[in-house]
Amino acid sequence: MHAWPASEVPALPGKGRDLQIHDTATQGTITLAPGPVARIYVCGITPYDATHIGHAATYNAFDLVQRVWLDTKRQVHYVQNVTDVDDPLLERALRDGHDWTELAERETALFREDMTALRMLPPQHYIGAVEAIPGIVPLVERLRDAGAAYELDGDVYFSVESDANFGKVSNLDAQAMRLLSAERGGDPDRPGKKNPLDPMLWMAARPGEPSWDGGSLGRGRPGWHIECVAIALDHLGMGFDIQGGGSDLAFPHHEMGASHAQVLTGEFPMAKAYVHAGMVALHGEKMSKSKGNLVFVSALRRAGVDPAAIRLALLSHHYRADWEWTDSVLAEAVARLERWRAAVSRPDGLPADALVEEVREALSRDLDAPAALAAVDRWVDAQNASDGDDESAPGLVSRTVDALLGVAL
């Protein structure tokens, strides 16, 4: 599966700062100092509907991570999956009378278009669950053969008790885990499971549903968590720098994935930092496909909204915050974009070297994009109130905003 084209990232003078990031597992801020190549895995979409603002906010956060690392003169090895076979996708295809593969391909293509328009840097490896199945089956067989998995009516489950470090990603108690498992794709009440929290690794073929050859597992399809584990281990290995996604993935998805990987490899932890973006609401409720309260990036683009303004709207909220999308959020972003473009369109301006460092400093502190925007606002206000004579300043500001914030002026 191919990703989307990359926009050029301008080089800035000097060098950026190492990233301090909030780690869900330790519940504190840690400083990441990767080697020459920084490694990040971000969980991708289940493509049964278009990209909404909640998706965009999550991918914007991890785009900032990439930009901070690139500014430190590192390379970035970024991997993202597409869950192109799963119950929600099959249910939507059945409801609407569509072929599930065509639905997945169409929505994935639209996602690529949205990411390109928003100038999100693409992953080096963009892998679908279906194409990952040949690598998933051996991992499930290994877990089963090691006694870390068991069969139940043809399905294969992972035993969470096989991982001594289970629970160290989300830090939730058993009761909270059970409630979230039921809400987020698990089946804690299924009779016969050794532990209600045990997640499915391999689902035996169901009538009328797609299935693949699972070797000794029989025909079926993979569970949600093992999909990402197989892709991450294949392309990044253990101990990569960041496992990322929305805050609703901390449990069960990232918790279960970490346990799968740790049992498979005998190493801990799977990732140095577990980083989670906040949720975006609309009309007082979290945006979700199940509720249908969505603002689609593609719909905004069709309505003539500049993607740079959409991106500024996302950047105006800290990535870990839960916030609400409103007309005023977008209007403020449109107005900010106009002010910034007007300020950098002048032939000269106030020196901007200090601004570069302010933006770097803000983003290095747990991706504080609102502080970075405020720094640019101050330069713009000063630029509009005075007559600077630095001919290089407007260009440097434009390159800084492009390189570090992904906004083209």
How would you characterize this protein structure?
With 409 residues, this protein is α/β, with parallel strands linked by helices. The protein has two domains: 19-286, HUPs (Rossmann fold, 3-Layer(aba) Sandwich); 306-405, Four Helix Bundle (Hemerythrin (Met), subunit A) (Up-down Bundle). The chain has 13 helices and 14 strands. Strands 5-4-3-10-11 form a five-stranded parallel beta sheet, sandwiched between helices. A hairpin with a 2-residue loop joins strand 6 (149-152) and strand 7. Helix 4 packs across helix 6 and helix 10 (327-344) crosses helix 12 (369-385). The longest helix has 19 residues, at 53-71.
Keywords:
single chain, about 400 residues, alpha/beta, Rossmann fold, Four Helix Bundle (Hemerythrin (Met), subunit A), 5-stranded parallel sheet, 4-stranded antiparallel sheet, 14 strands, about 45% helix, about 15% strand
In short:
This protein has 409 residues and is an alpha/beta fold. The chain has helices spanning 53-71, 87-96, 100-117, 129-145, 174-183, 224-235, 250-265, 297-302, 307-315, 327-344, 353-364, 369-385, 393-405; strands at residues 19-23, 28-32, 37-42, 75-82, 125-128, 149-152, 155-158, 200-204, 220-222, 240-246, 271-277, 280-282, 285-286, 323-324. The chain has 13 helices and 14 strands.
